[in-house]
Amino acid sequence: MQHIPVTSSDLNSVGYDPTSQTLEIQFNSGGVYQYFGVPSNIYEGLMTAPSHGKYFHAYIKNNYSWRKL
């Protein structure tokens, strides 16, 4: 999955597969996580948010099933 670098104190880069609605986030700590069933509007909101980290914590974390890669 292709990632787009983001400027954030928490997130390093973000990838998204609209077909499977899988969001993949690489954190600055080095961990890579996949979140499942994420609609495209949530991905778009993350990418356009003034704070990627705050958006992630408000709308993605604890709202979707996930796995660590």
From TrEMBL:
InterPro entries: KTSC_dom (IPR025309). Residues 7-64 form the KTSC domain. This is KTSC domain-containing protein. The lineage of its organism: Bacteria, Bacillati, Bacillota, Clostridia, Eubacteriales.
